[in-house]
Amino acid sequence: MKAEKLILDGNRVAANMKEKLAGQINRLSEKGIVPCLATILVGDDPSSATYVRMKGNACKRLGIHSVRVDLPSNTTTYELIAAINKLNDDPNIHGILLQHPVPHPIDERAAFEAIRIDKDVDGVTTQGFAQNAFGFADYPSCTPAAIIGILEYYNIPIEGKHAVVIGRSPILGKPVSAMLLNKNATVTTCHSKTANLDNIVRLGDIVVAAVGKPKFVQGDWIKPGAIVVDAGYNKGNFGDVDYDACLKNAYAITPVPAGVGPVTIATLLKHTVEAAEKFGY
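The chain above was modelled as a monomer; its predicted structure follows.
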């Protein structure tokens, strides 16, 4: 008899988070505070525009005010930082999200660093990264926080497990590795220069794929009973994991779409509401 597979439903996790947020938003409303997220979109990349629109719609459905700042693709680093500082100084803005990637030759890192730490609800500053590594960030990077949130929602043990993270980006691979380590997992972080990647992935009790390559992780890389979290999203609604192949060995797996993505957006909203709560104290 085949063991039943556990599909880690991100929509379900996100709905649970939003239900809790509704009460927090109502309490803030009684104080005359409306949580507000500012999103900045530089240029006209259609995928980025879609992501910003999705986040704005998610805010609207929950009763969070959203302010959208659209800048042309020829915006300079100086002009972008000036726009960020204007939002930093606005007391009605509780969170700031700069949609990335930004067009070349903008210095994206300099722009991220301009976001005030108490409004860095997307967890993109180096100060926020450091706080996350030490385990006390108010607003860790949203996708890593979503991954941890999914595992915790489904009561999947992390402590004592071997987690293999494929990817080392500063807003996904590295911070989720730190978060798993802080949860007492043993963590191996892999990347494009890792030798014998497939053999290392086979050691993972928890495998997090964050490489940005469709169907990169193969089914025979997954050891029987492993937990597979696919943090990738590629054209055609494909994740970084070959879902059908990996499902054969995995005990639990996130689908794409409806896996990590909805929880990432819910986490962004959660951080924005929490930032507004701090404003209200």
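The chain has a mean pLDDT of 96.
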